[in-house]
Amino acid sequence: MNDIIWLTMRRMRTPLIVLILTYSLSVFGMVMIPGQDEAGNLVRVGFLDAAYFVAIMATTIGFGEMPHTFTHAQRLYAYIVLFPNVVAWLYSIGTIISLLVDPQFRAVLARTRFSRRVRRINRDYYIVCGFGYTGRMIVKGLLKRGISAAILEREQHIIHAMSLDEDLSHLPALAGDVTDRRLLDMAGLDRDIRHCIGVIAITNDDHANLTIAITSKLLRPELPVMARAETRRVEDNMASFGTDITVDPYTIFAERLYMALISPVKYLVHDWLISVPGTRLRTELKPPHGRWLVAGVGRFGSRMVSKLEEAGEPFTVIDVHPDRVAQRPGSVLGRGTEAGTLRQAGVESAAAIIAGTGDDVDNLSIVMTALELNEDLFVVARQENPQNDELFDASGADLVARRSQIVARRILAVATTPLLPVFIDHLFAQDESFAQRVRHRLEAVLEGLSPGLWTVELTGEWANSIRAAQMEGTSIRLRILTENSRTPAAESLPCVCLLLERGSLRKFLPGSEEKLLEGDRLLFAGRGVARREMLFALREPTTLVSQATGRPQPRGAIMRWLMRKRLS
Fold it and tell me: Among 267, 339, 465, 470, whose CB has the most other CB atoms within 10 angstroms?
């Protein structure tokens, strides 16, 4: 607000001085010129009457001569001061209008409004830097999980479009330089601002994301920072100063393809856990073993080639850069969009093809041409522009690398369910039997729809049931928590406990008789109704205790004490 006042006073200083001087001199002159009443007696206009007369004259409202009919001298004076006063008012009003449309003033006003709205956020929120397709997906995912966001974006038209979305218009958003420390302070890095729980940097500029990560870690080192990085140099740089999560969409996709090649079950379970809740579960993906064609070995293709080598799969590279072709004997020089180039690479005998150039149209052309030559190919395609979703869906590709979606899924998984990456790392490290157990348990409760994920921390009010059970001389076991407390008969909730964390101890797929203790953190996957019933039972301390003891527990603390005395 101080910036607005300072800028207004600086711009309005000259107009106000001109207006005040003109008005004051006009009033003073009107007071000094003598008049006369109807009887011809000499009178003088008072300061109040003179001020009123000049005001209505200068603003062209219209007036009558007051308090008495003017003399010729007074009329001549009114005629003389009329024009300077009108010009002074028009000058002042014009300056105000120009100030209101001035870009600098509007920018200061927008910053003030943004800062005020951020300070009014009364729940946990993330600072989201960059609001393209990826940012929009992340913010909507956060809102679905009860977490808010403060948004910084370079492009003003994106902020304008956001204000037209009824789901997002209530969020504080500001257009400006997302690397500006002052804007980051306003968004939540200022220690006086409460409820900020982390920073998400997902602009299309790696250097900007790096700057945001460094600034955030220097100003608020305790806040988690999740940043997008599409080059290994930037990724290593971010990791060197403690960035909590660096997301390279190409590396993530390459690792997922590698997992699909060596363990389709692990890939399937992982895909279920990171899918949008409520969507149809995907079926098992089984990429073929055999020779692969890789069209384009830039940032994306190089990562794919590395994972194919790790999986022991033979491949042939197609690229337009002679130096890349020369590095790999047997490669073919070309774009891959022409049938001749694909035949030269041996498309008729290949098992799969990766269309990995940086151009969506070229990738679609590669896919369509390759399938015409060999309709049995397993096809992997790279998609850069989210607006081409329908085109790639219709292309016949078996697997599409959608950069925005990959980044959004990974960041949402970490931001909303921090125990999920721990479980996924354990899943990838275990043998096939563990993945099969997880798959069968999820299939039993999901009914063909992707699961919702939630974390339960048995602390504070959420540990009331644990403390109440201890007072009753019993304990709450995991099976009690996963039963519906509002049905007469024991009915299991449609969910699976994936992980129990107790201090440094972690138990994956804990058994139903596992005793729950205060401070435990549990990761669940299941349907939304299971989460609602579980949280209801945790809020009511007598519910789970009644199930554990088999005796209905009175709600009042005094009645529970009397019952314990009677039973002791």
Answer: 465
